[in-house]
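re: ur question from the group chat, yeah i did fold both. here u go
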Amino acid sequence: MKIQQPRRSRIQNKNRNVILDAALQEFSARGFSGTTIDQIADAAGLSKPNVLYYFPSKEAIYRGLLVGLLDLWLAPLRELDAEGDPVEQILGYVRRKLLLSRDYPNESRLFASEVLHGAPHMTEVLSEDLHDLVAEKVSIIAGWTASGRIAEVDPHHLIFSIWALTQHYADFDVQVRAVMGEGPDPYAGAMIFLEHLFRRMLAP
């Protein structure tokens, strides 16, 4: 017999979200090892016992963030459609990834920090979920290349380059803004530049 889990109240859901939002700020700035429960509690405006009521450990909070982050991170690649126009499909992926960096910079930095530390909490997910999704899309891109619908390109390195060129604006935000100064939002110019770059590269 399946045991039903008790439904959370509105205030419980609110407190969990407050804790996760505070933890995201702390983890993205300090990394997993540099963040403490006390720091998360202070950022959330809650007591440490209150935080531990909702999450039994720092690792439980971190894993909760990563689970939600993975769905967010994979969604733009899932939308790559084999039936669509190849160039427009790839450019659409570039746009979605850049907007993801703009709208979710802390999530991007959290993911980057986890990977830079060897992905100890995501090894299985990266080697299974991410690997399988990328393999599926690599096959689509390879088919477009083989049929002459886009220029010859290594599908894996194409995807890696999209990750690097879009996530850079979130992960190195301080550097980008230091170099560009107080001028216009860098994302508008980045969108124009990246669309031009990939459209020329992919043209058959």
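okk and heres the other one u asked abt
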Amino acid sequence: MEIRSTTDQDLDVFVDTVFAAFGRFPETPNEGGGGVWWSALEMDRNLLAVAPGGRPVGTAGAYSFELTLPGEVLVPAAGVTAVGVLPSHRRQGVLSAMMRHQLTELRTRGEFLSVLLASEALIYRRFGYGPATYTQRLTVPRRRAAFARPRAQGVGDGTGSGVGPATGSGAGSVELLRRAECGEILEEVYDRYRRAQPGALSRPHRWWARGAGQPPISTAPRYVAVHRDADGVPDGYASYSLGEAETLTVDETIATDDAVFTALARFVLDHDLVAEVVFKHLPTEHPLRWQLQDFRAGQVTNSTDWLWVRLLDVPRALTARGWFTDGELVLDVDDPFLGEHGRYLLTVQDGKADCVPTDREPDLSLDVSDLGSIYLGGTAPTTLVRAGHIQAHHPDAAARADTLFRADRPPHCLHWF
């Protein structure tokens, strides 16, 4: 079997192979060749596994993203995508060979982080990836959508009267547009949001220009509630559609602060002829349920992992992110898939980290996939110690790691790729 890089001439073969791997057929692009997810593929970053005789049997791709780390640090990250093996060639080592080839290639490019969305949770941990951000769906019946009166002084509009106008500092407004009318606004607002949100990924212009992705990146018909600040500058949006059973589904809500989110939530929750509103992607600790008069009105479903993280260079990755507590830890990191093992002294002072090899006794022993899970601050090291995945060698080691790895805000990723 040969694993080779692709070129632009391989696009059709690549797409046909990955769809066949999942038992599906490609949809038809629009006249400009866009409107489909693969129109944003970077063909110089993709791989084909070719069986003897020349038949393609497997695919693996990667996008060029920026990932926001704790401390509003932006770093390059490879977004692994389109990974598939034909049913006729599974359990023959094709996937492992492609993933090993890809990780080696990413390192050759000088990249130190790789991320993906896992189709199956059992697959990617063995390749060194760990779940690092989480998301949930929240469903709110409109008849129970009244907001509680804020109890903190200076919070909200003080009316406590159900669904009402935007709250927060300064005046704002919400304008209703169609998706086709506001592509540039969506792109600009999302880019401002993702630069401050740990765990968020960039959405390159080519994605928006080609409609390559899920709504609201795609050009599928959607209404968009655009929030503007007192000066008329867009600072948030909610993309939504109204489906069967009078259910309004919000694809995503992007807001630069909590007051903007509240205004947009109130807007969709006040929609006429709607029985319930579904927010598809909210962080697991989002305050919306607490804002409702009836806490039980918000029903959480589909609470799941989203972005998985893989460290390709431990010292570079740990020194890249921002830190918020001084301290030090000795981490004993095992990378069985690549056959590597390293012990590192992580020292943090004044928000900056130094990470060097050491022969000191470890505080924590962990798999590289577990390091990926705690890297963005979305998974507490003590959780993985209690689960039996991380070994703490001192009574206070896990607690010290919790304090050290915490983020300035919970990581969250909305981007689908």
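fwiw on the second one: The CA atoms of residues 168 and 258 lie 8 Å apart. Residues 94-108 form the longest helix (15 residues). idk if thats what u expected
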